[in-house]
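STRUCTURE:
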């Protein structure tokens, strides 16, 4: 006999969804705002030749936004690849092997997750500044040859920040992994490398993919660590939007956010379809 769920349970679910998605809906609506000052909604903009998509057309002509978006995607892609590879290797090592500093390594893995990003950003800034100063002084580098903050420092910082998240997600997947199938592959003559590529990796692929998605998301919208490690020519979208707060914010920012939301949504749909085909 089916039990009917109480009305208040449905009400709570509806309120939670409204709380989560109402700001996103308002953000999308304001990307079509007729007012240049993005404080109140004054109707749908209708300026030729773009009509209601006027702010999207203005956005396409803004080279600063395009450069910032390109930098964000480059940093997120490279840091995701690096942190996924290193985090997966770290998870395999911590889950399967015993070594003298294993307890210390497990504890250290949680430090970037627990400490505030502000503290980590300052620490990374001090580290880069000290190392670059020592190298520049030792090699007597001058002018453009001197090492400094830029796209590379942001990528390295994001990799260091994302590795613990990937490692924890992959390690959780490894808890339910049956190593008997690996032993069967080895008994049939497969080497350790072939066993990893054909047996281990396909079985833990959902965990690796989840960790990669988490690393990509963290890198894409990170502000604090990027703020401390960025340099000339390495402005990302969060840094660019923060700079706009000092001036008048037009619906162009909402148009940018709308495009960003749609791209992320399409990426999630594609990944879910790929996971469904794997199952």
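SEQUENCE:
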């Amino acid at each position: 006999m089916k039990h009917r769920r109480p009305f208040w349970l449905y009400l709570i679910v509806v309120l939670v969804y409204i709380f989560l998605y109402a700001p996103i809906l308002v953000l999308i609506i304001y990307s079509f705002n007729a007012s240049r000052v993005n404080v109140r909604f004054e109707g749908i903009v209708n300026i030729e030749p773009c009509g209601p998509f006027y702010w999207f057309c203005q956005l396409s002509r803004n080279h600063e936004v395009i450069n910032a978006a390109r930098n964000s995607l480059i940093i997120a892609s490279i840091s995701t690849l690096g942190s996924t590879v290193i985090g997966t290797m770290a998870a395999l090592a911590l889950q399967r092997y015993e070594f003298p500093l294993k307890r210390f390594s497990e504890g250290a893995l949680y430090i970037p997750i627990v400490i505030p990003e502000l503290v980590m950003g300052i620490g990374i800034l001090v580290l880069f500044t000290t190392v670059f100063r020592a190298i520049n002084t030792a090699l007597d580098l001058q002018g453009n040859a001197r090492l400094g903050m830029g796209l590379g420092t942001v990528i390295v910082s994001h990799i260091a920040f994302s590795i613990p998240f990937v490692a924890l997600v992959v390690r959780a997947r490894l808890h339910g992994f049956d190593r008997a199938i690996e032993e069967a592959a080895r008994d049939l003559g497969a080497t350790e490398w072939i066993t990893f590529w054909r047996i281990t990796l396909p079985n833990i692929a959902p965990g690796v993919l989840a960790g990669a998605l988490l690393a990509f998301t963290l890198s894409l919208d990170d502000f604090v660590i990027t703020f401390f490690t960025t340099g000339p020519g390495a402005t990302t979208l969060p840094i660019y939007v923060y700079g706009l707060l000092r001036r008048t914010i037009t619906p162009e920012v909402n148009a940018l956010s709308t495009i960003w939301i749609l791209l992320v949504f399409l990426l999630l749909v594609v990944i879910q379809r790929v996971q469904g085909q794997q199952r």
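REMARK: The chain has two domains: 1-61+248-279, 63-178+205-231.
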